[in-house]
Amino acid sequence: MERLLIMAALLVFVLSACVTNNAKSNTISAVELTERENAILSTTSDNSFVFDFNVDSEYEEVSVWIEKYELGKLVNNRISSITSQVEENGSVIFATSKAVGRKQYTFNIGISSNNSIGSTSRIETNSDDLDAMSSVWGNIQGENNSIEGEVVLASICYSTDGHMSSLTTDFYQDVDGHMNELEKYDVVYLLKAEFNK
């Protein structure tokens, strides 16, 4: 009888561990950076975002790209993009920087997974008016966000109106249902990702 109770307890433990592991599979979350990590990124960029993902073996790659909107209308669907193989877990890094003395912004995207890193940089040449605008940025909130379909990871919004707030949490959870939020801004850059099987 005692052996049966021990086996039942082990079975419950193993099953609960499987449920816990499955809850964290196929998810992506914003990373809470350490003070040192923040200092490093602040030294090299104006805005930066880091996301960790966990995927099961059916996912083989991730594509990450930047879209540009003006007054809510899509004007460039791939300012910069990168596709990389993934295995189990990894990170997506997005950073922007402005060239000193120039009205050009550089967008940097990096993907790391399975001890390999891929990155791309792209200069946004149509950014002359951004210096005269206010900006606000945001990203997905909470842990273990689903990676099903296209996911908006982060946004940088510019407006000539100094009174503005970042995109709502609802926007990141239901992008199609909240696209009208982009109409409040002169320019919006969205960082998107899609995990592929």
Q: Overview of this structure, please?
A:
This protein is an alpha+beta fold. The chain is 19% helix and 46% strand. It is built from three helices and eleven strands, in the order αβαβββββββββαβ. It has helices spanning 2-24, 35-44, 169-173, and strands at residues 27-30, 47-54, 61-70, 73-85, 89-98, 105-113, 116-124, 134-139, 145-146, 150-159, 187-196. It has a six-stranded antiparallel sheet, covered by helices on one side. It has a five-stranded antiparallel sheet with strand order 4-3-11-10-8, with no helix packed on it. It is globular and about 45 Å long. The N and C termini lie far apart (46 Å). The model is unreliable at 1-23 (pLDDT under 50).
Layout of helices and strands, plus pairs?
Layout: H1 2-24, E1 27-30, H2 35-44, E2 47-54, E3 61-70, E4 73-85, E5 89-98, E6 105-113, E7 116-124, E8 134-139, E9 145-146, E10 150-159, H3 169-173, E11 187-196
Antiparallel strand pairs: 1-2, 1-9, 2-5, 3-4, 3-11, 5-6, 6-7, 8-10, 10-11
Would you kindly provide a brief summary of this structure?
By secondary structure, the protein is α+β, with helices and mostly antiparallel strands. Helices cover about 20% and strands about 45% of the residues. The protein has a six-stranded antiparallel β-sheet, covered by helices on one side. A five-stranded antiparallel β-sheet has the order 4-3-11-10-8, with no helix packed on it.
